[in-house]
Every structure is written in structure tokens, then in C-alpha cells.
Design brief:
- The protein is mostly helical.
- It has one domain.
- It has twelve helices and no strands.
- Helix 5 crosses helix 11, helix 6 packs across helix 7 and helix 7 crosses helix 11.
- The protein is globular and about 60 Å long.
Amino acid sequence: MTEKKKKPNIYNYFILTFLISWGLWSPFYFSEEVSEFLVLPGAWGPTIAALILTYRSHGKTGIKQLLKKLLIWRVPFKYYIFSIFGILFIGTIAVLIHKALGGDLPSSAAILQGMGLAEGQLMVAILLSPLFFLINTLLGGPIAEELGWRGYAQEMMQQKYNPNLSGLVIGFLWSIWHLPLILFLPKAVGNMSVLAYIPLMTAMGVIFSWLYNRTKGSVLLAILLHGGMNFTHGFLGADALSDKNLLVIQVGLIIIVAIILSRSNKNKPVTT
């Protein structure tokens, strides 16, 4: 007799994700100093929840199908360029607009210090940037989260709602999911305030939805986009975006890009 599997429920996924991550993060509320490495287990909450619910509903076969999304790499090269450099390019445009409006350019010394380098080591920073990008992507949130948020939740949501609404909802919940980090480890979210972070991540949810559908459900490309976002906003931009005017410009540009991309992201279900 075949074992009856439980029907997956997207709401259960979000609840389980929050329970896992917030449960692992909750002890840090009482710590005076928190290391970024110590919060990494909680960052795996979205993927752990996805694996648990996939196994519960589809067994080992479902797990294999989910993991295969990590191996979808044969996509047009332009999507690699967008994933890795897109948010950095938008950030550069934001800096130029900010300067044109009378603002100051970001301090190169602060950026170099964030990379652990001394002032004047700009060329070293450029040469080491690919290494920093890889470390941030492979050891941080991008690889820990994306199999869950995009590989599982995006596709599940699109079974009931259109891709843009699915991306909006996931992006909003994704921002709320980060609230504990905003409280006790703000540098993990680029030292942004909640008022900037929630609209930024909600808009990014639409951009991730667009990329996910354009690349036929590639979690690999979602990981690269997440890495590019973290590298720009968290690694390079944590100090630069402390300028509220520059931050407003950056968030505004991200929202504009999300609106533009959403126009070609309607009713396009993922084919895997």
C-alpha cells in the first residue's frame, strides 16, 4: 500500500521558516555582541523548511527535483551579468544621481576599511572583490536561503497567484523575516532602517521573481543575484548607504527597476 503524502501548503512553509530561523536567532537578543557567523544557522531556515515540507509531500523524489534547481545553469549569459552586476550597477547610478544633486561621494576609506584593507589599497580591493563576492555568496545568506524562498516558495505561490504578486508577497515576508537581524546585528542588513529595508526587499522580491521565471526556475541564478545584492548593499554599501538621501535614491531605483521588469513577468509559469 502506497503511503499517502501530505499536500504541501505554502502558509505552512512561511510559518515553519519563521519558527526555525527566529527560534535559532532568539538567544542573541540577550547577547551584547553577535558575530555574523553565529547567525548563519538561522539563515538556513528557508531552505530547511523547504526540504522538510518537500520530503513530507513528495518524498525523496521531491527532494531530488528541488535540488536539481541548483543545477540549472544553461541560461542566456545576460542573466549572469544581471545577477552578478545588476544591483551594483543600480548602486553606481544612485551614487551619480546623489552627487549630481549636491551630495557627497561615498568614502573610499570606509569601504576599504569594511574590506579589511588600508586607505590607498584600492587596486587590491578591486582584485580581491571576486573573492569577497564568492565568500559572501557561498558562506552567507544567498546559498542558505534561495532554495527555500525561490526554489520552493516562488513556485508554490505561482500555483495560485501570478508571478508578480507571488514575488511581492515573498519579498515582503522576506524583509519581515530579517527583523531580528535589524535589531541585534544591523550590519547584516547593511545598517538600513526598517522603513527603507521593507520596501527595498519587497521590490527585490519582484526582481527575483522575474529572474526566476526568465531562467526556468534556476536557483543558481537566484543565489548569484542574492550575492550581488548583499555584496553591494551589505559589503560595499553598509557605510555609504548610511547617507539617508543616497539610500532613498537607491531604494527608489530598485522599485523603478522592479516595476519595469514586472511588465514582462505576467502569467509566465516556471517550466522545469
